[in-house]
TrEMBL record:
GO BP term (any one): carbohydrate metabolic process
PANTHER family: ALPHA-GALACTOSIDASE MEL1 (PTHR11452:SF75), ALPHA-GALACTOSIDASE/ALPHA-N-ACETYLGALACTOSAMINIDASE (PTHR11452)
Gene3D superfamilies referenced in this protein's UniProt entry, alphabetically: Aldolase class I, Golgi alpha-mannosidase II
Gene that specifies this protein: agaA
Protein name: Alpha-galactosidase
Alpha galactosidase C-terminal domain ranges (all copies): 349-428
Species, as recorded: Symbiodinium natans
Statement: the UniProt record of this protein carries the keyword Nucleus: no
Taxonomic lineage: Eukaryota, Sar, Alveolata, Dinophyceae, Suessiales
Amino acid sequence: MKPWPFLVFSLGLRPTDCYDNGAPHSRKPPLGWSSWVGLGRQWPGPEAQAPEFDFCDEESVKLSVDAFHEVGLFDAGYRHFHLDDCWADHERNASGFLQADRQHFPKGMKPIVDYAHSKGLTFGLYTCAGTYTCVGHRPGSKGHFREDAAVFAEWGVDVVKMDWCFTDGMQPEPTYTAFSEALNATGRPIHFNMCEWGRASPWTWGPRVAQSWRATGDHVPLWQDTKKVIAQRSQIPAAYAGRPFAWNDMDMLETGNYRQAAHANGKTGNMTSVEYRTEVSMWAILASPMIVTTPLLNCSKTDQIAGNFTSGSCRPSITPLQKELLLNKEVIAVNQVDTPAGRLLKDAGSWMAYSRDLPDGSVAVAFYNPSDSTADASLDLSALGWASGTMARVRDLWAQKELPQTRDRFPSTGFVEVQAHGTLLYRFSKVSELIV
Ligand code: GLA
């Protein structure tokens, strides 16, 4: 492998103890797309037929890069393009290096990475710390950390996700530290995303070795699961909740996935639009990476089932619900800042308020109602640390609409109604403080 001709400027830890090695789009939570349930074939096949998900090949990946732009993700600020457990050949090459699936990527991975880069995207690949990858049973990186890091750097990869299957007897912290060192030894700035599902409290040691780490198990598009991920994530102490280059990853956004998506972990998405809105709101305010996994291509049924993705039979497409929920720039702006991640502000039992300070002094507030009935919510602005008498502007971020100004309390009288499983998202800005 060729050594990289440049050095990474800040591999050492900074006083803030966060991990900036120069990898792109890491200061703020990564915003992007993953192939995980976005490129399956044999769906929507007959009910009884298990979908083959985690499929990818040269054609489908290039078309998805194009579609990333055409469906509006790029314009809304998304930049990361990740291939999950789908790309590696089942055998290493004769020299022991990982290689792209020889049948699906006959020209190898480098031209694919170059193509994504030529379209302004940051390119990510998946590997696993253990003997095999989780679902694809492809070669894991165990025993090959140096070679695998070198291959990723040689191809120009910007992000590596490392999973935790088949790791009997291994410990997360030393293992991920070793791979992080191997990545940095290449001289290429690579964003490291650790995926041990939050088991060894990665938020306590992760900021020394990675820019993001899974804080929870796999997220599937079922309401009970989304609710569980939000609850587990909320348990992380505020000091570890997330800051620049150190983000707690709640796993991928399944927004708007029904039968058009390969079934994540065997589950078909069935969440309502209200529940999917909660998903996006809470991922945004809790400063999770927002990596969408959903098909960006609508292909003819025959070609879809055969896994024959061609520009002739596939057109770029996401659903109107996905456009509404994933492309709202004011909601994305709550996520795409480098202030500390949001925190639980008020627990009213049936509903909760979360807040995130924004760089301009305004505060994003989410009213989240995980209960099964409508909740009446309100907030004393003193909870934001604002002096008594403060007049605030209020913006409804989903509606992208200014609401009447209010003093000391929101709403000024009565309550806002939060639907069961729903979330309202606002931005509060100080207009004036009463001078007494
Ligand atoms: C694990 C990870 C998922 C996905 C699959 C791929 O389950 O947690 O995010 O990467 O492996 O096999």
